[in-house]
Amino acid sequence: MAYAPAIDVSDERPDGDPLPQWYRTAAAASWRFLVIVAAAGALVYVLVHLRIVVLPIILALLISTLLLPVVRWLKAKGAPDALAAAGALLGALLLIVAIGTAIAPSIGDQFDELRPRAEDGLREATDYLADPPFNLSERDIRDTVDEGLARLRENSGPLARGLSSGAVILGEVLTGLIVTILLTFFFLKDGARMWGYLLAFTGKRSREHADAIGTRIYAALSGYVRGIAFIGLVDAILIGLALLIIGVPLVVPIMVITFFAAFVPLIGAFLAGLVAVLIALVSGGLLDAALVLGAIILVQQVEGHLLYPILMGRTVHLHPAVIVIALAAGGILGGIVGVFLAVPLAGVLSVVLEYVREEPPPESPLVEASAVSAPES
Fold it and tell me: Where are the membrane-spanning stretches (predicted)?
């Protein structure tokens, strides 16, 4: 007669705890995870409510990545730190004012008719859906479109919340603008000293890692901002030329929308292209709309297969699914501002994770050294 071997319960639970080991491990991991989530949520809450301080810091940091090469060039010519930073910043402001002055007269009137034209194009597109081969209910489609447009006029949903409930408070904008300009100047002038001061608060063992991570993050942001700005400029010029050749009106406003849409990957390009196609549909009919759509697809192919690999090859690499999730989370948490900053922040997180992954794992007292160093079979 066979007997089952006795199980020594005391070996598995030396402390006498009646709960199994896997249960205690899961519980310990769960409460630690909840603490991390709560801390991250509290941090996001504070950052959103302190946006008048946080946003200028982020914008100044991004702007400094664009102007830093100019500052370095001026320093190489013998200019002092303060003069080089002030010269680069003043030159950028004058360039923006000059461009705004040049295109403001044509944009002012055309932007007023941009939305009505796009709405008319959307309604005209519904007429095609009511015809064969779709044969959808024209009345139901029009009611749905009119209801959606009415809601869009009333409020722009969670995205509008990022600009202080519909209209930006003038004092908040002016304060943020002044703080951004001043911080940009100081970042350009004393950025290296500021970073050294922050590193002084880290321990000696972690200072090297902190410096390496900070350097990688700034380099990635520099490449991303410069690359995305150049890509947006090229997209705007190419699409503007295509619209001029086809004969679509409101070229300048569409070019402006295309440029800024480049800073919101995937979704921005889709929305800018949709506006261009709808306006072409109203002004020239189905043929012009098809030609504009073909031109947009061609420009996107040039961007995806030529510009992105060349300009963004050494910056952050994010999967499209990660970009979509980041944009959705940014829109919910920070509105329009959150959408604008979502991809750069996701890129920063990606750089940190890549650095951690490349670093060798620390020695663990739970694993023998021979097991760690043994090659995989």
Answer: 29-47, 53-71, 83-107, 167-188, 224-248, 254-282, 323-353
pLDDT-wise least confident of 132-146, 190-204, 276-290: 132-146
Rounded Cα distance between 198 and 218, Å, is 15
On the 0-12 / 13-18 / 19+ scale of CB atoms within 10 A, 161 is: buried
Task: Supply the DSSP string of 173-231, one letter for each residue.
Answer: HHHHHHHHHHHHHHHHHHHHHHHHHHHTTS-HHHHHHHHHHHHHHHHHHHHHHHHHHHH
Give Cα separations from 158 to 82, 251, 271, 323, 329 (angstroms): 41, 29, 17, 18, 11
* pTM strictly above 0.85: no
Sequence length of the chain is 377
Percent helix, percent strand, percent coil in the chain, to nearest 5: 80, 0, 20
Average pLDDT over residues 186-199: 89
Q: Indicate whether 7 pLDDT > 60.
A: no
Whether the CB-CB separation of 237 and 255 falls below 8 Å is answered with: yes
139 DSSP assignment: H
